[in-house]
């Protein structure tokens, strides 16, 4: 069965770049479906960050578009998220997921990223 | 402020039925598939409904989804204490060219 696992620094300084990787097992990232990132600030709701296909076509949340980049590494069956110029407002649990029918399933367990000096 | 509007909370007794609404517009719910997620405390969201009304394998038929115009509804029958969770709706917004989620609804099983 497909499984996803987020990895990356748990602490990022303000103004720096947040970088996360999602490792996919049990399914080829080059196959059908799209791959996405979603975040959840502590005690708040879900926020859609972006999604992309292995072809490279990507869509981003308009409120984050100027700071977000997603990429796919088919050779390693992984995809990544970069968010530049972070502030405390970017502190959240970040989830990666596989997408289809405009839905996400399954989800990784999530990784907490704190932005603080 | 979320693009999709959900009630902050709903409650019902064990064994009863509850519905959770998700209101949007023609640029999102009105013309795109809706999905629903259950998030138990301290865990990642879990897909309950996709394609407006389809259940993934393993999701009991106590959970159902429907859509009419620019609103969608999640129904849960035979409520159990284990159903206490936050529930989110999601879809694509054609105008934004981005996905959107509702603000979430906390279900309390009294």
Task: Jot down its keywords.
heterodimer, A: mainly beta, 11 strands, 53% strand, globular, B: mainly beta, three-stranded antiparallel beta sheet, 0% helix
Outline:
The complex is a heterodimer of chains A (117) and B (110). Chain A has no helices and eleven strands. With 117 residues, chain A is mainly beta.
What is the element layout, followed by pairings?
The complex is a heterodimer of chains A (117) and B (110).
Chain A: E1 3-7, E2 11-12, E3 18-25, E4 34-40, E5 47-52, E6 58-60, E7 68-73, E8 78-83, E9 92-100, E10 103-107, E11 111-115
Parallel strand pairs in A: 2-11
Antiparallel strand pairs in A: 1-3, 3-8, 4-5, 4-9, 5-6, 7-8, 9-10, 9-11
Chain B: E1 9-12, E2 18-23, E3 35-39, E4 46-49, E5 63-68, E6 71-76, E7 85-93, E8 98-101, E9 105-109
Parallel strand pairs in B: 1-9
Antiparallel strand pairs in B: 2-6, 3-4, 3-7, 5-6, 7-8, 7-9
Overview of this structure, please?
The complex is a heterodimer of chains A (117) and B (110). Chain A has 117 residues and is mainly beta. Chain A has strands at residues 3-7, 11-12, 18-25, 34-40, 47-52, 58-60, 68-73, 78-83, 92-100, 103-107, 111-115. In chain B, strands 1, 3, 4, 7, 8 and 9 form a 6-stranded mixed sheet that branches. In chain B, strands 2-6-5 form a 3-stranded antiparallel sheet, with no helix packed on it. Chain B contains no helices and 9 strands. Chain B is 0% helix and 45% strand. In chain B, a hairpin with a 4-residue loop joins strand 7 and strand 8.
